[in-house]
Design goal:
Layout: H1 7-12, E1 18-20, H2 29-37, E2 42-45, H3 51-64, E3 69-74, H4 80-89, E4 94-98, H5 103-111, E5 115-120, H6 123-131, E6 137-140, E7 146-147, H7 153-163, E8 168-171, H8 177-185, E9 190-193, H9 195-198, H10 207-215, E10 221-224, E11 232-235, H11 238-249, H12 254-261, H13 264-269, H14 294-309
Parallel strand pairs: 1-9, 2-3, 3-4, 4-5, 5-6, 6-8, 8-9
Antiparallel strand pairs: 7-11, 10-11
Helix pairs in contact: 2-3, 8-14
The protein binds ligand TUI.
Length: 311
């Protein structure tokens, strides 16, 4: 078995079947272009960015790479509709979606020739996406950072692979060649990786954020906000532990939770604010030990995966 040629590399014209996750506030044009230039698919996060900011980021990415790249549309964003239109106007080749069902945008994207690859947390949504014309799906396990579903990567990926004909990428808990090899054994034809790229040289987050990820141990991620309906996996910090305790002992109502976490992603990413910031990260953070260029990360991961799969 090889990772070198899959339906994902063929569909998108990329060298390695690896997407860099569309991490809100984090995944901007410098990081995305570095991943695309290294042969993966870099992705700019739409998050809840103002439309002018996202347009500028898309144009900047085009100036930094002649390789394909993508934009992630976060469907809980209040301006998802206008960002969905923007990617068409700007001729973005690939769109990924998260945190919802992109059904109402599919026809317009397909008509414009955009490749659409939604993140799915369940078999049911994967099947629905295939019927609506998705080109592939990303089956994302609860090991991921940020907003998460319930099922694990190990359980979800093979069930999604069995349920759809379109190619499947695995996401959640993948940070080295073993993770890629395991994903391929589960039937995936590509992977999406977030946390490993947080510790890339080209990742523009505050140095405090990178240090937290590099220093994290296996037990250093925590899920907060289940009771708001938007569970998020974070690095354990004083702030995230306060949120987790407030949720558990009832000292923080869901409304208060929403209030204190408003703007907390920006505070983490830009300011490195340990008192009020949410440092989203995956459960695999404990394995990320070194900051290095995207090209080295990708080449090492696939070198290791190829060696394992050819054994
Ligand atoms: O979207 C993510 N991860 C994210 S988004 C984000 S920004 C945020 N800000 C405040 C509150 C919450 C999020 C941070 N991290 N990953 C992809 C993902 N999508 N994970 C789970 C899902 C998902 C969940 C339900 C996708 C579809 C879905 O569909 C439900 C339905 O409508 O059928």
């Amino acid at each position: 078995m090889t990772t070198k040629k899959t339906r994902i590399t063929e569909l998108l014209g990329i060298k390695y079947p690896i997407f860099q996750g569309g991490m809100a506030w984090i995944a901007e044009s410098t990081l995305a272009a570095a991943v695309s230039n290294a042969g993966g698919l870099g992705i700019i996060a739409g998050g809840s960015a103002p439309i002018d900011y996202l347009r500028e980021q898309i144009r900047r990415c085009k100036s930094l790479t002649d390789k394909p790249f993508g934009v992630n549309i976060m469907l809980m964003s209040p301006n998802a509709e206008e960002l969905a239109q923007l990617v068409i106007e700007e001729g973005v080749p690939v769109v990924t979606t998260g945190a919802g069902n992109p059904g109402k945008f599919m026809a317009a994207w397909k008509e414009a020739g955009v490749k659409v690859i939604p993140v799915v947390p369940s078999v049911a949504l994967a099947k629905r996406m295939e019927r609506s014309g998705a080109d592939a799906v990303i089956a994302e396990g609860t090991e991921s950072g940020g907003h998460i579903g319930e099922n694990t990567t190990m359980c979800l990926v093979p069930q999604v692979v069995d349920a759809v004909e379109i190619p499947v990428l695995a996401a959640g808990g993948i940070a080295d060649g073993r993770g890629i090899a395991a994903s391929f054994m589960l039937g995936a034809e590509g992977v999406q990786v977030g946390t490993r790229f947080l510790a890339a040289d080209e990742c523009q987050v505050n140095p405090v954020y990178k240090e937290l990820v590099v220093k994290a141990k296996d037990t250093d991620s925590v899920v907060t906000g289940r009771y708001t309906g938007h569970p998020c996996r974070n690095v354990k910090t004083k702030f995230s532990k306060m949120l987790a305790n407030g949720e558990k002992d009832g000292s923080l109502t869901p409304e208060q939770f929403e209030e204190v976490t408003l703007g907390s992603l920006r505070k983490a990413v830009q300011d490195g604010n340990l008192d009020e910031g949410s440092f989203l990260c995956g459960a695999i953070a404990g394995m990320v030990k070194e900051v290095k260029p995207c090209k080295d990360i990708i080449e090492e991961m696939f070198g290791e995966a190829e060696a394992l799969l050819s054994k």
